[in-house]
Amino acid sequence: xxxxxxxxxxxxxxxxxxxxxxxxxxxxxxxxxxxxxxxxxxxxxxxxxxxxxxxxxxxxxxxxxxxxxxxxxxxxxxxxxxxxxxxxxxxxxxxxxxxxxxxxxxxxxxxxxxxxxxxxxxxxxxxxxxxxxxxxxxxxxxxxxxxxxxxxxxxxxxxxxxxxxxxxxxxxxxxxxxxxxxxxxxxxxxxxxxxxxxxxxxxxxxxxxxxxxxxxxxxxxxxxxxxxxxxxxxxxxxxxxxxxxxxxxxxxxxxxxxxxxxxxxxxxxxxxxxxxxxxxxxxxxxxxxxxxxxxxxxxxxxxxxxxxxxxxxxxxxxxxxxxxxxxxxxxxxxxxxxxxxxxxxxxxxxxxxxxxxxxxxxxxxxxxxxxxxxxxxxxxxxxxxxxxxxxxxxxxxxxxxxxxxxxxxxxxxxxxxxxxxxxxxxxxxxxxxxxxxxxxx
Length: 441
Description:
Alpha-Beta Plaits
């Protein structure tokens, strides 16, 4: 049921208006502008029906005060016994949606109030469609920033920047359709972690933002961080399988209002600095902005156990270590340096899929299937990456016969798959550190 705030300093008029409207609406009342502000703060009605001429604070002044406080246009309708045309004109100039003169008929008042509420619903519906992120149902970047600029000035609470860690790997390994499912689930988890009155938005990609009203302590942020991270892993395994080994998690940077400021741009920068601290300390956690901590260029690990936690691989599974090309290159350079010292043989293997014949099987689909095959065919000590259309593998503790055995195993499995009818598999390899030799084909 819609809620209407009726404001009138004349008791008889106030009771009469309340009696008429209460047949169709929930009605709250105030007998002065000052009291109306308190009632509005508590009840947040759908519209205000106010007498124009009141002592101390007029209806005009009440309207301007509320709109300045809440930084939004509040639906107002004025009542007055004044017959002067300039009074009505001034009311519309100030943003009133309608004007009714006393004494009024009950049916006329109900019809005019109903028309205003229909218009308000239509406007709110249009605004909502334009302000919502179509994928997650959260506020989009522009609307989130506008709303947060308002609430940071109005409420005390915590501004949270929330990043979805390692999300790119979901798209790279499982495709963008799965990526969308993870983003939708992540948004739902954030909504479950926060309260209905809190503000949540998607800033773009895997970046989210929220404002938790009345949240003023780090312990509460810790609880939300743990909830989001635990449930994200559960949902990811439900969607991608129990063998999912992508290190998904949430990193959260926090700044408090008004402790760290009330300007959204200022709080955003401070929350971003706190988020950077989390990223530098292993991700999947939270950090609250502190002047001392953000001045340090590189946060230090507390002890050897902490540094092992930062460096360690989460959700360690069977199969090869899958890295970005930059990560693969770092491992390659390290092995080239150390292999002559420890005399442990290793080789680099280049795998290529070549398309032949006419086919409806897309290259991206074939490459995804081939990558899955590789991960099931290689050992934990091996390392794999993708560079353009090629797959590159480092095999450790090997000899030439082992390389051929692995390649034959991949060939056999590939030939059993429908994608092999459209893409031919070939490979060449060389001993690590001896790339001047002719490659083995």
